[in-house]
Design a protein that fits this description.
about 325 residues; alpha+beta; seven-stranded mixed beta barrel; five-stranded antiparallel beta sheet; 5 helices; about 20% helix
Length: about 325
């Protein structure tokens, strides 16, 4: 064998050994990484009982009356009970801009329910109006909710006349209904703390807002006239906890449902609308909330001057919620 061939064999042998060594070393690192990752992922969760679900409230019509239910599906887009879905109906102007209780406080007196495939509209001194939920021949309208584009199926001229007559305005109002295939709203466009993938129909923020009875009682103790939880329009009301405990629940489990806290709920003039009378004062309880529930200076770029009351959550795991369910705080 010539010297040149011997050199080539030697070089090849060294190269093969290096490859083997690298392979073994790489496998070892991979196993180590997997082991560490497995250990981290398997880190046990700490589960602490923090409260009990006392109410489940669905607001089918944005700014309309709440429907109290004993059981609800908790979907990615919010609570659902039968044909009722949270904030899936919206009053708009003829050019598609949203109308809420901020501009039309008497909207809080409008009840929207569903029965046998029909929508039922009720309010004081008005006859009930019934019309089909599904109206596929009606046009889909492009709407604006907080400067974001979203769609809705027009609910027809009868519902438009009914709302216009009840609200007593010269302008015309229309009712639209969000359907699953339509363009939804991404909360992250207005509130960057929300995940980019999150989509909702017509709520102000995200799919679920949670508030405790004790927080409402704490606020009422500072007011001349007590307020009820309905004024703040939560999805889930919690009892058996201290005031503002919910501020610290970053992740919670209720039955099979897992919720992730995103941010606090900044409050506006809508809290000054009495849900029983539809009268707006533009003062209380907002002024009192501002006296003790403002954000930290480091969070002013998020909440500005809005007082914080209630917590906004996204749905990590869907499932069924029931009144009486125990609420568990999850930590690791």
């Amino acid at each position: 064998m010539e010297l040149k061939e011997l050199k080539e064999l030697a070089v090849n042998a060294v190269a093969q050994n290096k490859k083997a060594a690298l392979a073994v070393g790489g496998a070892g690192l991979a196993l180590l990484g997997f082991g560490l990752g497995y250990k981290y992922l398997r880190k046990p969760e700490k589960v602490v009982r923090v409260g009990v679900v006392s109410q489940l409230l669905i607001h089918p019509l944005k700014s309309g009356k709440a429907v109290s239910v004993a059981l609800a599906e908790c979907q990615k887009a919010g609570l659902k009970f039968g044909e009722l879905q949270d904030r899936h109906w919206l009053v708009v102007t003829e050019d598609g801009h949203m109308v809420t209780g901020r501009q039309q406080p008497r909207l809080v007196l409008v009840s929207l329910t569903c029965e046998g495939g029909h929508v039922c509209l009720n309010s004081p001194n008005m006859e009930e109006l019934r019309f089909p939920i599904a109206q596929p021949d009606n046009p889909v309208r492009n709407c604006r909710v907080f400067e974001a584009d979203v769609q809705g199926r027009d609910c027809g001229d009868e519902s438009s006349r009914w709302l216009t007559r009840f609200l007593g305005e010269e302008k015309t109002f229309r009712l639209v209904h969000f359907e699953p295939q339509m363009k939804a709203r991404r909360p992250a466009e207005q509130y960057p703390l929300f995940p980019q993938c999150e989509q909702v129909a017509y709520p102000d923020f995200g799919p679920v807002m949670l508030l405790s009875e004790s927080s409402v009682k704490d606020l009422s103790s500072k007011l001349e006239k007590e307020v009820t939880v309905e004024r703040f329009r939560p999805s889930i009301v919690i009892s058996d906890c201290e005031a503002f405990d919910e501020d610290s629940w970053e992740e919670i489990q209720i039955g099979s449902v897992r919720l992730q806290r995103i941010m606090s709920c900044g409050r506006c003039v809508f809290t000054t609308v009495d849900p029983e009378t539809g009268v707006i004062t533009r003062k209380e309880p907002l002024d009192t909330l501002k006296s003790y529930r403002l954000c930290k200076p480091s969070e002013k770029h998020i909440y500005k001057a809005s007082p914080l009351f209630g917590q906004l959550h996204t749905v990590k795991k869907t499932g069924i919620l029931q009144v009486g369910d125990v609420v568990y705080k999850i930590s690791r």
